[in-house]
């Protein structure tokens, strides 16, 4: 669909559908095959997973995707691979982690 108001001074219609995502029109579309570092993946693709958690998973999770490329010392990963990993990673039930046990024992609540 042509966006006639994309540029107020332009007299030609422009098509912005290819450059913006449908969920958030002001944000550029993200290509899943683009190689990104963990910091960029956390900031744009996986904001619900902390950078520390991504780094920990890279070091300890055998299901974590293999790097696709390298930029200097930074390992790069395909965005689609990271999203697939994030969707398929196991999530612990509430009250089963060591942090939950420590917090409840200090509060005097036994699990």
The strand order across the widest sheet is: 3-5-4
Architecture of the largest domain, according to CATH?
Orthogonal Bundle
Q: The biggest beta sheet, please?
A: 3 strands, antiparallel
Summing up helix and strand content along with how strands pair, one would put the structural category as alpha+beta
Strand content: 5-15%
Count of the separate structural domains: 2
The helix count comes to 4
CATH topology of the largest domain, anyone?
A: Arc Repressor Mutant, subunit A
> Which geometry do the CA atoms define?
globular
Number of strands: 5
Question: For the record, what CATH class of the largest domain applies?
Answer: Mainly Alpha
Helix content: 25-40%
Q: What string gives the helices and strands in order? A: EEEHHEEHH
What is the mean pLDDT? 74
The stretches of 5 or more residues where confidence is low (pLDDT under 50) are 14-21
End-to-end C-alpha gap:
57 Å
Radius of gyration: 21 Å
């Amino acid at each position: 669909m042509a966006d006639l108001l994309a540029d107020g001074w332009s007299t030609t219609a422009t098509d912005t559908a290819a450059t913006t995502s449908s969920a958030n029109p002001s944000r550029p579309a993200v290509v899943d095959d683009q190689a990104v570092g963990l910091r960029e993946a956390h900031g744009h693709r996986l904001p619900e997973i902390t950078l520390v958690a991504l780094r920990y998973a890279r070091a300890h999770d055998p299901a974590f995707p293999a790097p696709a490329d390298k930029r200097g010392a930074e390992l790069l990963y395909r965005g689609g691979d990271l999203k697939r990993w994030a969707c398929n990673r196991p999530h612990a039930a509430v009250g089963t982690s060591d942090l939950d046990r420590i917090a409840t024992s200090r509060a005097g609540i036994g699990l």
